[in-house]
Hints:
The structure is a homodimer. The first copy, chain A, is elongated and about 105 Å long. In chain A, the strands form two sheets. The first copy, chain A, has a nine-stranded mixed β-sheet with strand order 1-2-6-5-4-3-7-8-9, sandwiched between helices. The first copy, chain A, has a two-stranded antiparallel ribbon with strand order 10-11. The first copy, chain A, contains 15 helices and eleven strands. Chain A has helices at about 15-25, 30-40, 45-50, 65-70, 70-80, 140-155, 170-180, 200-210, 225-240, 255-265, 280-290, 300-305, 330-335, 345-350, 355-370, and strands at about 85, 115-120, 130-135, 160-165, 185-190, 215, 240-245, 265-270, 295, 370-375, 380. Chain A is of the alpha/beta class. In chain A, α6 runs parallel beside α7. Chains A and B meet through α6, α9, α11, β9 and α14 of A and α6, α9, α11, β9 and α14 of B. Chains A, B: Pfam families: DNA_processg_A (PF02481).
Amino acid sequence: MSRRPTGSAPRVGLDDRLARVALSRLAEPGDLRMNTLVTDLGPVAVHEHLTSQHDLHGLLDDVGQRLEALDPERELVQAEERGIRFVVPGDPEWPAGLDDLRSADPLHDRGGVPIGLWVRGPLRLDELAGGVAVVGSRSSTTYGESVARDIAARVSLTGLTAVSGAAFGIDQAAHRGALASGAPTAAVLACGADRSYPAAHSTLLDHIATVGAVVSETAPGLPPTRIRFLSRNRLIAALTCGTVVVEAAARSGALNTANWAGRLHRVVMGVPGPVTSAPSQGVHQLLRSGAAALVTGGADVLELVGASGEHLVEEPRGPVRSRDRLSRRDQQVLDGVPVARAAPVDSVARAAGLGLLEVQSALSRLHRAGLVEHGEEGWRLAALAHD
Amino acid sequence: MSRRPTGSAPRVGLDDRLARVALSRLAEPGDLRMNTLVTDLGPVAVHEHLTSQHDLHGLLDDVGQRLEALDPERELVQAEERGIRFVVPGDPEWPAGLDDLRSADPLHDRGGVPIGLWVRGPLRLDELAGGVAVVGSRSSTTYGESVARDIAARVSLTGLTAVSGAAFGIDQAAHRGALASGAPTAAVLACGADRSYPAAHSTLLDHIATVGAVVSETAPGLPPTRIRFLSRNRLIAALTCGTVVVEAAARSGALNTANWAGRLHRVVMGVPGPVTSAPSQGVHQLLRSGAAALVTGGADVLELVGASGEHLVEEPRGPVRSRDRLSRRDQQVLDGVPVARAAPVDSVARAAGLGLLEVQSALSRLHRAGLVEHGEEGWRLAALAHD
């Protein structure tokens, strides 16, 4: 299922790619200094400097030694044996959105354009560009999971890719929603693309790798760490054009992803829930602060991320009532008819502010339409016409 | 319990009051033309014009005749016998907020400053000025009712009055929440203040009338009509400084109240709910459109309507984690420790981007703090430090 990395050789020199492999193995995901050096000077120059112990900015310890111990060609072959390709800037499938990470807030101590991404699965990364991230708490409710599943399915049915982090709770619900609609989905991991975290999701991840993509900035074989989770969140935001937070307790990692999405000028969206539900607290905070737009389902999401006018949502309008089909004058009479106790014609006429004769003929029409009732004491509504 | 209307005689001449009584009995609540004439020319002039059949703008049929058949002094006495007083502009308890109705959108075909308000109960109307309207669907859920009750109770405990419409569902929950906290509450009706609509709430309304106020623009004895409901909604909005919509299906009357609140430059607030819940649809529409601010409870409401800084809400922050008490360097090391499978010190050092010795002493500290575990294969987190 995987593609040979050499498929993109025409645009990226092998030295460049191998230097990136080595640096990807050496550096931590989201190491802003390293990523900035690689983006600015190119991987080959950085690699050369580091191996010749020109430790550019006191960046790392014993770096030269460790770099020399690496065998990037062998790494690539081993990765390929596990169905993993290494996608780097300049490759045809390199997603342009990742380059936005270059300009993101330099005061932040993590970030930058990744040196490369390890990818397992047939889905091309550049196909994620119009995609939507659906993220949220691991401690989710069945409500949240059901909404995440629906949003991912709806987004997938229009051909956009649902992206998430393969965690318990909302993440897995999003992946499953996409898969259930027969669409590929992308899981961005905080560990190597060959590993399964959480372990309970190894079948899910293998399935995603056969139809979609399992993506990681972390080199194959490496376990997840907190740094890697935080760095991973920026990729989920950068790879897509919008992030939906379905449920997130205060301080949830999903809020970190939403934060990155906002910083990268992506669309940030939040699904509300009961105010009594802890996993919705973080989302309500996002919505209150104005950092996220409220969405109630896939249609709202598509309207916000879609090309203009492409997915316009029809406002829910409630049932059309028989009242709506009346003339303005008949409506006016109807509005003057008592709700509960019946009243005589002249009382209705006064309430409606109209003449007696006019009101009498209107009442006959309304009676034929089944909207008013007539008894000994006069007229009353046949059904409640207000809420 | 009621006050004698003559208690305010020093400021409003009796002719003025009696003219208003007659006009209140003659005209429909929210009759914009009538209300504007009374505001601009004064009730005595309008009354004189109408009785002398100078039908100013083709306003009403056989008006002079009907006005002459009225006995406003008797009306006042009869009202007083039922514990109802008639509050008019110029009375000490006349709520200044109602005068804002004068300037509200003149293109709208209903509105205007009411000719007077019929009030049953000891609560002074001017005490509603800082109050909060809590409104919503009659077809509410237990979730919505519980939130409405809590908000009304919380608002009441700070001395602000909760105002609503005494309908089934959210309205009654709001009144009960206020009463449960030992505070008065005001119910604004679409029928006469002596009547109970819905009939099932007659005990509730009688209770409100003993500690708070039952208020209506509709003269005593008259039944509710759709026109009177819509006119009533503008009063709920105008009498308070903010309106909270708790649950409202699309086209709910509560949205009409919210609309009036916005037009009158009051604070408009909405409580979100599950996106799968029909009674929350209308609220989500309000929130999406930006017409309302999202509130999750009484504290949020108080922050938005309160005097600046008076009721500032502390953002929910989630539990303080032991991680937060670490030095920045120790946090950096902790962030490099694998989540699941253990790793040797040099791997942690590399992940943290720090020197071996430094990492070793940090790991000892973290171990003593119970944050990391140490086994044969190396170090791992003692507890998950991410979500």
